[in-house]
Amino acid sequence: MLSHFTIMVKKISQLFVAGPPVVKYATHEDLNKEQLGGVDIHGENGSVDYIVNTEQEAFQIAAKFLSYLPSNANSSNPTKVGPYDIDTESLELLDGLIPIERREIYDPYILINGVVDRDTFLEIGNSYGNSMIVGLSRIKGCTVAIIAQNPAYFGGSLTAKGSEKLTRFLKLTETFQIPIVSFVDMPGFAVGSIAEQQGTIKYGGEAIIQLYQSTVPWASIIVRRCFGVAGGALVRVFELDKVHFRCGWPSGDWGSLPIEVGLISMVDGGTIVDDQYFPTMLILRCTLLILIQLLLLMQLMPFTILKGLMLFLLLLLLW
Fold it and tell me: How many CB atoms lie within 10 A of CB 211?
């Protein structure tokens, strides 16, 4: 639990604070070890990073994980000498992979495997926080950390569990100074009552802090959406003075928020009104914006009857 990487083997490994006899005495719950702390429990809550079927597979995954890291935190990351094999099948699928329509999904693993060296991507925490994909890989033999979003889960938004996963992963990259390649398709924080109950603001805030505290080299590729605070943090928008690489995929679309959301927010204070009132409200709001612009242009002029009338209309519209 206190290690950088934790593996559990199905059916033969369990994890809990106290075993079934103690739990039965304390809480009167009659559970076996698997029900109390098996892979189904700790895979979903994020206590473990990887779940395997056999012990042999566990040894293989542990060896692969360690192959990306230096012998200690003060050493350089290991580099594999070429030739470097490329996943040509995934590479060929990159052209046209990303749908223009924001609500359509795609397979982010094709994107990742088309960029990194063949069969080198090791995903960490693939059984929880599935809207966020993190893992280690190699590009031309060099160890890199991969961050991406999966639009098949919550539209790729930053959820509470996804934030926890991202925060833990960023601490790993900081400890061993692993450069990060971030494929950004971030619509923003998850919203709604469930998101609020799960503490998305709390865990998301911690992830944002960890993002801006990161000191490793960072390459951000805006694949499609990049909106809000969460999207801005993934491209380190407030650190333009630092040496980081940013580029936009042809399908990239970024800003503070999508234009359609801005229109809804402008009309009737964020409430979608009935169709019969929509044109009227839109005209009124646009008139308000025009008045504000005129007032700004007239701010250096002395007070006049026209300016007073415009101010009265402005206050009336605001009311």
Answer: 22
Structure token pair of residue 43 = 């895979």
| Rounded distance between C-alpha atoms, residue 132 and residue 67, angstroms | 23
Q: How many residues does the chain have?
A: 319
DSSP 183-207: EEEE--B--SHHHHHTTHHHHHHHH
> Residue 116's beta-bridge partner residues?
none
In sequence order, what E strands does 228-297 have? 245-248, 253-255
Compute the C-alpha angle 163/78/223, nearest 5°.
Answer: 40
Q: How far apart are CA 184 and CA 225, in angstroms?
A: 7
* Helix and strand counts by DSSP (H, E) for the chain: 13, 9
**Contacts for 84 with CB less than 8 Å, ≥ 6 apart:** 117, 138, 140, 141
d(C-alpha 219, C-alpha 182), whole Å: 6
Characterize the bridge pairing of strands 245-248 and 218-227.
Answer: parallel
151-174 pLDDT, tens per residue?
999 999 999 999 999 999 999 999
DSSP assigned state of 13: -
Work out the percent of the chain whose per-residue pLDDT is above 90: 39
Q: Which residues pair with 52 in a beta bridge?
A: 9
Q: Which residue type is seen at 60?
A: Q
- How many angstroms separate the Cα of 228 from the Cα of each of 257, 258, 316? 6, 9, 32
